[in-house]
Each structure stands twice: as structure tokens, then as C-alpha cells.
Here is the input.
Amino acid sequence: MSEWAADPSYETFVLNMGPQHPATHGALRVKLRMDGEYIVEAEPVLGYIHRMHEKMGENRTYLQFMPNTGRLDYLSALSYNHGYVSAVERAAGITVPERAEYLRVITVELNRISSHLLWVGAFVLDLGGFTPLLYAMDDREQILDLLERVTGSRLTYCYFRFGGLYNDVDDDFEAGARAIVKRMRDKLPMYHNLISKNIILRQRLEGVGPITGEMCRKYGATGPVARGSGIPYDVRRHEPYSVYPELDFDIPVYEQGDSMARYLVRMDEIEQSLRIIEQGLDKMPDGPVMAEKVPKIIKPPKGDYYFAVEAARGSFGVRLVSDGTNTPYRLKLRSPCFSNVSLFGEAARGMLLADAVAMFGSLDLVIPDIDR
Amino acid sequence: MSGYFKEIFDGGKSLLVGLGITFKQMIQPVVTERYPRTAPKMPPRYRGHIDLVRDEEGNNKCIACGMCQRNCPTGCITIKGEKPEGAKKKVLTFYRLDFTTCSLCGICVESCPTDALEFSKEYNLAGYSAGDFVFDLLKRCEERRR
Ligand code: SF4
Ligand code: SF4
Here is the structure.
């Protein structure tokens, strides 16, 4: 913080960023106490689109909650589908056929790439560059088209089912997925030349908005935010689930903790996701995509269950308390964006407003995921 | 001092490289679809709102069991059925879908014992009031017959 900003006799004023603000990408309000262009205090005000998803879970059957999971973080809906079905499968003791797990992982990783692509476009748009958004959208469109052919939807997927998948993929899927891997591999250098190496972007991001590993631990930040601050935490590695242990991929980690580091983590993650998809396609066995003995009405035995997955924005966890009936007793959703936005108040202190917006964008927040 | 000039040089170069990329893109073929002049074709699994399946004779396959109505998470299906005198099976007399609250989850399609439901390929939906999205599927099924 600049010295004069710390002086209490100095006059400050309150500035509202949001709830309708292009840089917050949703209905989020940040109450800023400003000293000129410098932020003295930042306080995110949450709850503008709270929809009681957790409460909804308590008054509908396990299957009926499925569509809700696609509407938390709508940009990586399949990860959320995955987290929820896996939690229920763990509770009800359902084993999933291998082919279904491979397909889950492949589609989730495709979804992760599409989410990161949208983020990179929107992020650069926030910083004033319009062109990359269009290129990112073009590439993302290919992924959405492929997922649409498989799942029937483009954004709010509801594709996984307890014990497997809604339907098997069509014959073109593998060729389509390989084409996307190739296309993205060819396109990534273009993104690096156009965005990562751009002098304007680098000046705006390098050294700006540092988040320390300590801060991430304090607020429970996960995902690319934590990995950009030197914490090599990834649920796919640290609490392996699904078929991830059989796949070979790296966890990109950067030590700097600035906005640029978070950007680079996501760009590297796209590469790693491509590797996962490729290996998944190679290893995917034939066979059924639905377990044989799945009860029509799911009634998990009494107990407390937790399952976490690595969504595009960090660790998404489902805590399920079952009382043995056909509806959950409690369904707690741990959303990564809530933790990631919590550190904004501390991290933004003393920053210039324009830099804070850049840093805010680098957190990659999806507001419906914060409010749930 | 030399570092200063190097930075200017590198910065300028990065901008030129960026411009080169956009220029190359400019002479690429157009990637957008000219909707509504060209209508996109929906893939077979596309999920539009649900519709009743017609059998070979053009009748619906519904036995009015009510599974879809019971399983729908948002209660957007209302059905009525009756047993005509002398008939063995129930016959569907009314099927209303309130598409405003449908989440296209597919649970109704999955839970139907006679596979009487399918997703339509309808995507061009726009209306002036919520009532425009309340569909009488039985009527739609009859209309398709003609
Ligand atoms: S798709 Fe889902 S929400 Fe829509 S009518 Fe069927 S069960 Fe209800
Ligand atoms: S589940 Fe199928 S057969 Fe039963 S009422 Fe619905 S559409 Fe008709």
C-alpha cells in the first residue's frame, strides 16, 4: 500500500464495482474503498443469484438433482456432473464400467479446455484486446460441437448417470476428439505468439496482483489460482479418482503468484488435457457404458460421504449425508470459486483499480458457482 | 541503456507478430455460419424439447403410466389418461409440457417404459409470452400425422 493511502486522515470514498459490471462477468458486486486510484479495502458482496441449490438437493431424489449440477459452474458442467455422480456412486456402492469412466474423463477434459479457452478470450477482452476472444471462441466451438453430438447439449450438460453414462458415444467421436487434439496442438503456438508474448499483456500482468501460497492456504483457494502461487495441489493427483491414476500427465505449477502465472498455468493445462484425451482414447476399452445392477431408486445406506473432483477452477467437492431414504439429508457443495473470490479482499489491498480488474479476471470466477 | 532499447525492440516485435497473426486470419475462409440464411443441422442426439414418438401407424406409444410426470425434476409434465370401455390399456388423452421450466435433462425419456418420448430437433424457439412455451404434445403428435 502506498504510504499516503495508509494515513487515516486521508480522505477515501466508496466505489461499487457491480453488480452489473462487464469485468465481473455476472452479478457480483465488489465494494471498494478507494483512495484515488488505489484500493484501500475491497469486499466482495455475494448472493445476488443465490438459487438454493443445496436446499433443492434435500427435497428431490438423487437423480432429480442431476440437472442442477450442470448449472453451478456452467462452463465446466461436466466436471460437476462427475463430482456429483461419483459421490452418489460412492455412497450407494455402484461400480462404473471402465469404458464409461474413460469417456467421463475424456469429455471432462474436453470441457476443461473449452472452459479455459473461453476464460482466456474473456480475460484478454477485459484487458482491452478483442481479437483473441474470437479465435478462442472459434476453437471452443469445435469442442462444443463435438460434445453436442455426444451429450445433446452445448453448455449445461446432464450426461452422466449413476453407474455410467446416458448413452455411448457415436462412431465419429474418436476421430472428432483426435481432430480437436491436433487442431489445438497446432493452434497453441498461435495463442502464445498472439497473447503470451504480447508486450502490452505482459506489462499488465507480470508482477501484478501477487497471491502468496500462504494466502491460498488461508482461504482454501485451489485450482489454477493455487498452482500459480507455487502450490502443486491438484485433486486428480492428490486424491486420485476415476481413471486418472492410469494416465500420465503433469501438473503445471508456477511460483510467481502474479496474474501472469495464473494465465500460464491455464495455458499449460490445456496442453496437459490434450495429453489426457489422447491417452484416454488410446486406452479406452470396449464394453458397456452402464453398470448392470443399478437400482431404479437410489437409496444409499446411512452415512456421510465426500467426493472431490478437479474442476476447471479448482477442487469441487460434494458432501452427501444420507439418512437411508431416497432423498439426501444434506447435500453440501464445495465450490472452488467461493474460496477463490474470498482472497480478493486481501490480495487487492493497495492495488491500482485497473490492476485489480486484471487480477480479478485472472481468478477466473463463475458467479453462479460462488452463489450456488 | 541497451536494455532499454532491447525492451522497445522486443515489445515492438511482439506487436508486429500479433498483427501478422491477425492478418493471416483475415485471409482465411469465414468460420461463422450465416444463420438464419443457412440453418444449422442438429445432430441426432440434440436435445430439443420432448415430443411423443409415433409408431408405424402414426399413433403415440404412450400408455399413460405417469412415470415421466413423476420423475421430472421440475414437474413440467402433466398427463391425463383414461381407459376406454372394453379396452385393455389406458389411452393418453392429454399431454402438456411446460417448456419454461424444463432443463432438458432427459430423465423423462429415460424413464419411459414404452420409449414413447424423444427429443425433438426444435431449436428455433422464441415467443412473446411464457404461454408460448407450453406445448400440447398430443396435439403436436396429431398434427405431424397430417
Ligand atoms: S427433460 Fe427433464 S425437465 Fe424436461 S420434461 Fe423431461 S424430465 Fe422434465
Ligand atoms: S412415461 Fe412414457 S408411457 Fe408413461 S406416461 Fe410418460 S410418455 Fe406415457
Remarks:
- Chain A touches chain B through 31 residues (CB under 8 Å).
- The CA atoms of residues 308 and 317 of chain A lie 4 Å apart.
